[in-house]
Amino acid sequence: MNIQITVIAILFLAAIFYVGRLIYNSITAKKSCGSNCKCGVDFSQVDVKKHNIKSA
To answer: Domain limits of the chain?
Structure first.
């Protein structure tokens, strides 16, 4: 019975670590790009065509 308690304790600690890591990653600041790094897409020059969709 001692091994069963040990296995359950290890699984419980792993679950606590996993949930704690999820919470920590959701709270901490995300790494983002600086200005003018050209890694994102600039949609300001894209011509948007509007379509008239008539409902039936």
So the answer is: 1-27
Q: How far apart are CA 17 and CA 41, in angstroms?
A: 37
Asked whether the beta carbons of 40 and 33 are under 8 A apart, the reply is: yes
Measured from the Cβ of residue 44, the count of other Cβ atoms closer than 10 Å reads 5
Cα distance between the two ends of the chain: 70
pLDDT of residue 1: 73
Could you give the dihedral angle defined by the CA atoms of residues 30, 35, 37 and 29, in that order, rounded to the nearest 10 degrees?
A: -10
Distances (CA, A) of 52 to 46, 49, 55: 19, 10, 10
Instruction: Tell if the pTM clears 0.70, that is, is over it.
Output: no
pLDDT of residue 43: 66
Looking up tokens 């359950």 gives 8
